[in-house]
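To close the section, here is one more complete example, presented without commentary so you can practise reading it yourself. The ligand is NAP.
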Amino acid sequence: MAGWFSRRQFLINAGLAGLALKSPSLFANTSGTPSLSPIMRQIPGANESIPAIGMGTWITFNVGGDEQLVAQRTRVLKTFFDLGGTVVDGSPMYGTAADVIGEALDSLGAHDRIFAATKIWTGDESETRQEAARSGRRWGLDQFDLLQVHNLLGWQGHLETLKQMKANGDVRYIGITTSHGRRHREFAQIMEREPLDFVQLTYNVLDREVENRLLPLARERRIGVIVNRPFQGGSLFRRFQSEPLPDWVGEVGVSNWAEFFLKFIISHPAVTCAIPATSKVEHMKENMGALYGALPDADQRQRMADYVRSL
Amino acid sequence: MSGADWLSYSLQDFVMFGPQVFLRLFVRINQDLWPWQVLAVVAAIGIPVLLFRQGRNARCLAVGLMAVAWAVSGYGFLVGYFGPINWPAAWFGWAFVAQGVLLAAAMLFGGVHGGALSFGRFVALWLIVACGLPWLVLAESGQWQALALFGIAPGTTAAAGALIVAVITGPWRWLYLPLLVLWSLFSAAMFWVLQTSWLLVTPVATLLLVGAGFWLSPRPARSLD
Ligand SMILES: NC(=O)c1ccc[n+]([C@@H]2O[C@H](COP(=O)([O-])OP(=O)(O)OC[C@H]3O[C@@H](n4cnc5c(N)ncnc54)[C@H](OP(=O)(O)O)[C@@H]3O)[C@@H](O)[C@H]2O)c1
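Output:
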């Protein structure tokens, strides 16, 4: 990603100017002064920051050889980049999503704008390098920024190889993933023992178990945290979107439910980045709104959680 | 993985694509095949006509056409279009091809009986399947190009194929049934998760038509040989 900042910044600002015209409240922070800088988070232990909102690709980017939908998802990815996003998360498990990202990156000429994160998802622990190479070909990348062991499948063997790959400079960061609250005890044990750069786990305004052990442990061990299922796979919208937002959320830079859910997550001090998935440009714009403006403090976060529970 | 972990999985976790992409598969295959759909329509009309003509050859030809319909919808739609976004669909696609081979073997090796069928009931059910079910995808997607034709769309083909239970005998019939049941359960679960409620009609109809196939088959079954 080196050497792209000024061009990227230009594109971000151009995108933001459009977004600001559409939704001026988006850029008002608590002090009332406009803020055009995206919320960035430092990767613990590294001299690098990434935007606090990334993008997932499960289901949404698995559109096969449907050229019409590939073009539409390319517009979703373009919107993401234009609004300051860089972190894209995939997995060989996500069907054709990797090919679709590859095609979209090609047509946008955006290989240098992405922080590419994928996973190793095979029970064969000797296949780590081969699977990473296959994914690289599908994304059209020589190297991934982050490789994660998907759902701890064959994690011992894969992690050993990933450590070697990192030492050789074949990947920049390594990590492990879980979701839906699965295998947290084993996950914590690996976090305690292994030199991980990132963990990926499920955290949202309703699924908060990780606040007890995994998030504090990530801070203690200086491990970056990527949050999956920030909208509980979309069910948060199905449950709450018809409800009014509380009056006071303007104070925390929130003007819609997407921002409400995402800002709740990224305001946790252990969280590096949340990776909501969407198939729609309009939803991407809403989600990227959470990358700007004020964030709730600890008290306000508690009020957000209480409000959702009261509905 | 512990038992508790398995319990944390829901049907949702196994469906890796969205409804929009699925419904567009019908539009895409119809656009790509145009105008060869005519052949599918001819087969859909030809099968009941041949079944009720006198003589072994006509009935065998009808079963042969049904075998081709299984194989074409399996290989074309399931392996070619659906498989890339949903791996189990490709496995089902190959099972559809095997079902076609099974039916062809039944046709060649005495698995098709020559007993009289109730013409009115069979044709009425066949017409409901071949002319009614294709519109469900259209109702769900709102796109007329999404018509789920017999011989192309696996759901309509399987539903029509269920009626063929009426003309195949003994062990062939029992070999023919598992795919009908498995496919119906698989597609019903998938439509449930995708919340495409119109489409649920097809697997439910398929299971009912299996029963209808038994009901229509003459007793005792008489082999053509
Ligand atoms: N074990 C693992 O490693 C693991 C497990 C789960 C997930 N993940 C990663 O985490 C990512 C995110 O999780 P997820 O995809 O399961 O769920 P999610 O991001 O919580 O929710 C995605 C759903 O939310 C909807 N949505 C998004 N933005 C919206 C908006 N502004 N308004 C209304 N609806 C909106 C999307 O529908 P539309 O398309 O209509 O916008 C989609 O159905 C995945 O894509 C994947 O990359 C990893």
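Once you have examined the tokens, check your reading against these statements. The mean pLDDT of chain B is 93. The first helix of chain B runs from residue 3 to 7.
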